[in-house]
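wait is this the right file?? whatever heres the structure
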């Protein structure tokens, strides 16, 4: 397993899969009628699953399961580092606690500080600087999406026989049809295209007068499926339907990207029951939302067992970024929040739960990043990654399952060349190696370096949520000396980023600045176009959706240009071949 660099081609083995079996389970109608499942409603005894039962004339285990595991990736939205029971939260999360305790907790696990960047890195295995999405998020009105020349995780899994389904929040762009989830590798899609919206009505206003509906089934607005159901519950019911109708002997990739616990802060009334003592209204609503999410994941787990997937499944749980304290989230004792490169913005809740794990009930403190899921899951699926795909992720399954050392030694948290520049940043402050006005952050072994403007830097302890309204009285703040644009921390010794060591270890600062500079040489241009007025849902039947249509003349022109370019390349290739033959002859003559 390679160590050291962050961009290397993975060479994996391609396997075969068995594809025989029978459909299991309840009808879609019964799920729609009754919603969630419980052990009693399933009629199963302890340890019994639908797959273990046999009907008249059936042989137990007929057909044999596929050697390829079912992959269930659950992505929560804006869940804070502290906001899980096993991190000391006052919010009860019995399902997450149990799944994590029986699996492997990832306690040195990193994501990106915002929605789009984390999702793009998960689905491509590449850093933002290598997809052009290194600035902010994809806005609803922007003609932008995950670049179409990037191969996605579901596309690679489909190559080796997986059925691929996505339920929940996309947020990787939709301005043209080719950007939609069903065009990027998913057999089916049910969810929202934008970054947020009302949990019940599924409407979203990007600005005054620019409002529209945002619930899709595949490539069309899902008006017929909109029954005013809270999105966390609605998405869970959809997951149950998928599991009920799929053959568990065929490999399944299920990407569940819940909207919760992102604002707006909304939850069904019954989930407030245990949290009425929380005075801070945002924290109370957030707690109710997280309680509902925890119950939803319990119901997903029950359905996996009910329909015979569980024993051959890998369940991965992750938040997409840190919590937002002003919207009820807590990252204590970490510093900072969502949208920042402090640990509170990028260090995430994460765990793996699977009967296939070798070291169950353990804690992984090795370095893991969200880009690592791409090569890891393709390896587990017996797929292969072409040598010309330059990845930033590593296969970390042995690290998680067997407790081995991580092949990862560094993480480029990001380089954002168009973020607001730090006023006092300069090349001089960066020893002539790096312009410290630029927002960037990098981790190498124990060291973490930040430059530019890293964002909101308070520590927000639990007491900050003790009052009815937003209160920063309890927050711990640091007043840096004027002009500071470089910070260095030993994250292993100081995970809360309280002791800046940049003045004490200038040689380490220089080493990390050089690493930043090396990464920057591989960056592609930033994709962050201005908004397009054609995106207005009023022009699209009141629905957020693809609006960009290439002009026919432009298409013909591009086609003609492409043909001419191909012809020129062909002629150039012939010329190079002749040149190569000439040089070869000369070298032979020169060599005697």
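ok assuming it is, sequence goes like this
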């Amino acid at each position: 397993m390679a160590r050291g660099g962050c961009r290397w081609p993975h060479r994996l083995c391609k396997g075969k899969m068995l594809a025989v079996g029978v459909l299991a389970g309840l009808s879609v109608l019964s799920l729609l009628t009754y919603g969630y499942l419980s052990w009693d409603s399933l009629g199963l005894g302890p340890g019994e699953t639908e797959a273990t039962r046999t009907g008249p004339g059936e042989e137990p285990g007929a057909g044999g399961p596929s050697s390829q595991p079912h992959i269930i990736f659950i992505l929560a939205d804006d869940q804070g580092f502290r906001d899980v029971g096993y991190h000391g939260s006052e919010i009860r999360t019995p399902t997450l606690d149990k799944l994590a305790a029986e699996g492997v907790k990832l306690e040195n696990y990193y994501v990106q500080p915002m929605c789009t960047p984390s999702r793009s890195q998960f689905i491509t295995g590449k850093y933002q600087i290598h997809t052009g999405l290194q600035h902010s998020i994809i806005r609803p009105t922007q003609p932008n999406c995950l670049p179409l020349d990037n191969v996605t995780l579901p596309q690679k899994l489909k190559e080796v026989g997986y059925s691929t389904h996505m339920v929940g929040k996309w947020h990787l762009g939709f301005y043209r049809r080719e950007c939609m989830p069903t065009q990027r590798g998913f057999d089916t899609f049910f969810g929202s295209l934008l970054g947020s919206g009302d949990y019940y009505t599924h409407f979203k206003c990007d600005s005054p007068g620019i409002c529209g509906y945002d619930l899709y089934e595949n490539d069309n607005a899902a008006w017929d499926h909109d029954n005013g159901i809270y999105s966390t519950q609605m998405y869970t019911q959809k997951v149950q339907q998928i599991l009920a109708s799929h053959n568990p002997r065929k490999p399944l990739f299920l990407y569940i990207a819940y909207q919760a616990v992102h604002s707006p802060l909304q939850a069904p009334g019954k989930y407030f029951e245990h949290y009425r003592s929380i005075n801070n209204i945002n924290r109370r609503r957030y707690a109710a939302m997280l309680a509902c999410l925890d119950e939803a994941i319990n119901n997903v787990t029950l359905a996996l067992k009910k329909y015979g997937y569980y024993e051959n499944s890998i369940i991965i749980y992750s938040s997409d970024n840190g919590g937002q304290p002003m919207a009820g989230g807590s990252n204590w004792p970490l510093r900072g929040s969502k949208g920042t490169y402090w640990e509170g913005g990028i260090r995430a809740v994460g765990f793996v739960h699977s009967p296939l794990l070798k070291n169950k009930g353990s804690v992984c403190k090795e370095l893991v990043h969200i880009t690592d899921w791409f090569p890891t899951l393709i390896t587990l699926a017996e797929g292969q990654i072409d040598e010309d795909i330059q990845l930033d992720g590593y296969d970390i399954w042995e690290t998680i399952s067997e407790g081995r050392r991580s092949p990862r030694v560094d993480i480029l948290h990001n380089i954002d060349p168009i973020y607001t520049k730090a006023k006092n940043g300069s090349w001089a402050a960066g020893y002539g190696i790096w312009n410290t006005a630029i927002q960037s952050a990098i981790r190498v072994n124990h060291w973490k370096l930040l430059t530019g403007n890293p964002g909101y830097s308070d520590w927000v302890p639990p007491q900050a949520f003790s009052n009815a309204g937003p209160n920063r009285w309890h927050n711990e703040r640091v007043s840096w000396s004027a002009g500071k644009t470089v910070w260095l921390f030993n994250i292993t010794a100081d995970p809360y980023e309280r002791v800046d060591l940049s003045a004490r270890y200038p040689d380490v600062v220089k080493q990390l600045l050089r690493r930043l500079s090396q990464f920057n040489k591989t960056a592609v241009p930033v994709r962050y176009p201005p908004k397009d007025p054609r995106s207005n849902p009023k022009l699209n039947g009141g629905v957020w959706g693809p609006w960009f249509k290439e002009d026919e003349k432009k298409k013909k022109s591009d086609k003609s240009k492409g043909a001419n370019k191909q012809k020129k390349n062909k002629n150039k290739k012939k010329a190079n071949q002749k040149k190569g033959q000439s040089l070869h002859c000369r070298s032979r003559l020169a060599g005697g």
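The chain is about 25% helix and 15% strand. so i think its the right one actually
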